[in-house]
TrEMBL record:
UniProt-annotated catalytic positions: D77 (nucleophile)
Similarity field: Belongs to the pseudouridine synthase TruD family.
Name listed for the protein in its UniProt record: tRNA pseudouridine synthase D
Gene Ontology biological process: tRNA pseudouridine synthesis
Pfam families: TruD
GO terms of molecular function: RNA binding; tRNA pseudouridine(13) synthase activity
Reactions listed under catalytic activity: uridine(13) in tRNA = pseudouridine(13) in tRNA
Function: Responsible for synthesis of pseudouridine from uracil-13 in transfer RNAs.
Ranges where the TRUD domain occurs: 152-307
Length: 343
C-alpha cells in the first residue's frame, strides 16, 4: 500500500498524539431525533477501552439475548473514550436500571419507534489532545486545520482499516484470486473491504498528486467525474460543476470496486480504471473523495505543551487522516501507542 499524500504540503508541524481514553475522545452525532415514545429503548452510553462489539456482547449477555437484537449505528475505537447510541426492545427498560459495568456508563435513555440501524449516524465529534506542542506550532495547527476545512480533506481510509500490518492486504488479494478459501463470513467481508479500500486509497493518492501538480494544491476536477450531492445521490454531469463543487453542493467521488455501481467516464475513467477490478462479484460503492471538517475548536494549554483540538467529521471518515494532513506525515498503529513508563 502506497503512502497517503495530502493537498497542502508546505510545512511540517511537530506534535504527538496517542490513542488512549484520556487523549482520544469520540462522540457519536446521530441524524435521528428520538421521539420519546415507542417499542424500543435508545441507550446513550459512554464506554472506555472497549470496542463496540465488546460493549454489545456485554449488554447481550446481561439481557440474555443474541447480540443481533441490539442495534447500533457505527463502530467506535477501543483505545479511546467514546459515546454512542444502542437500542434494545423496550421490555428490558426495568432490567437496565440494575446494569453496572466498570467500563460502561449509561448517560441517558429514551423511547423510540424503531431500532437503531448501522449507518444511522451523521458523523462523529472528536476531541484529541496533541502533545509536545509549542506556542508557535499551536497557531500553525489551528491555521492549517481551518484551511483544510475550507479546501477539503482527502477522504482516505486510515491505517486502522488495514489491520496491524500488510498481511491482511496480501490475504485479501489471495482470497480474491481464489488462491485461498475463507469460510468465515465476517472475515471474508473484512478482507473484501480491505481490497476495495486499498484500490480507493491508491486512486485518491494519484488524484491528489495530480491536483498538487496542476491545480496549486486544490482538488482538480476531471471530465467524467462522478459526484455526490448532499442527499447522497450520484450523477455524472455533462458540464463540469465547478460552482456547485466550490459551494460544497457536489463532491467528487472515488470507486470502491464491485458490481452495480457508477463508473467514471472520459478523462476521470482513465485514472479510475487503473484501480478497478471489474470482475469482483461483491457490491461496489462510491466514496466521497473529499470531506470538510466542521466546528473546529482549539484550546492551547501552555504549561502542559498540549493543544486540545475538537472537530466533527462525516461518518466513515478518519480523525487520524485529518491529523496526518496537518502533520504532513503518515501514522501507523505503533506511532499512536503510548510509551509505557519504566518503573
Amino acid at each position: 500500500m502506497r503512502k497517503r499524500e495530502y493537498l497542502d504540503t508546505t510545512q511540517d508541524i511537530s506534535f504527538k498524539f496517542f490513542q488512549t481514553p484520556d487523549d482520544f475522545m469520540v462522540d457519536e452525532v446521530m441524524c435521528t431525533e428520538f421521539k420519546g415514545k415507542g417499542n424500543y429503548l435508545i441507550i446513550h452510553v459512554k464506554k472506555v477501552e472497549l470496542t463496540t462489539w465488546d460493549m454489545v456482547a456485554i449488554f447481550a449477555e446481561y439481557f440474555g439475548i443474541p447480540a443481533q437484537k441490539i442495534g447500533y449505528a457505527g463502530l467506535k475505537d477501543k483505545h479511546a473514550t467514546t459515546t454512542q447510541y444502542i437500542s434494545v426492545d423496550a421490555s428490558y427498560e426495568k432490567m437496565l436500571k440494575k446494569f453496572h459495568h466498570k467500563q460502561i456508563k449509561i448517560l441517558k435513555t429514551i423511547r423510540h419507534s424503531h431500532s437503531i440501524r448501522m449507518g444511522d449516524l451523521c458523523g462523529n465529534r472528536f476531541s484529541i489532545n496533541l502533545h509536545f506542542v509549542d506556542n508557535i506550532d499551536s497557531g500553525k495547527i489551528e491555521k492549517c486545520a481551518r484551511k483544510i476545512a475550507k479546501n477539503g480533506l482527502p477522504n482516505y481510509f486510515g491505517y486502522q482499516r488495514f489491520g496491524r500490518d500488510n498481511d491482511s492486504i496480501k490475504q485479501a488479494e489471495e482470497m480474491i484470486k481464489g488462491e485461498i478459501f475463507i469460510e468465515d463470513t465476517k472475515i471474508k467481508n473484512f478482507l473484501i473491504s480491505i481490497y476495495q479500500s486499498t484500490f480507493f486509497n491508491d486512486w485518491l493518492r494519484e488524484r491528489v498528486e495530480l491536483s498538487r501538480e496542476k491545480n496549486d494544491g486544490k482538488f482538480l476536477l476531471l471530465d467524467g467525474d462522478v459526484y455526490q450531492d448532499n442527499k447522497g445521490d450520484l450523477s455524472t454531469p455533462k458540464i463540469m460543476p465547478t460552482r456547485e463543487f466550490e459551494s460544497k453542493k457536489l463532491v467528487p467521488t472515488g470507486l470502491l470496486c464491485g458490481r452495480d455501481t457508477f463508473r467514471a467516464r472520459d478523462e476521470a475513467r482513465e485514472i479510475e480504471k487503473k484501480y478497478d477490478d471489474e470482475f469482483l462479484q461483491e457490491k461496489g460503492y462510491r466514496r466521497e473523495a473529499l470531506i470538510y471538517p466542521k466546528d473546529i475548536e482549539c484550546k492551547y494549554i501552555r504549561k502542559e505543551t498540549k493543544l486540545k483540538i475538537s472537530f466533527t467529521l462525516p461518518k466513515g471518515s478518519y480523525a487520524t487522516v485529518f491529523l496526518e494532513s496537518i502533520a504532513n506525515k503518515n501514522y501507523t498503529a505503533k506511532d499512536v501507542k503510548p510509551k509505557i513508563k519504566q518503573k
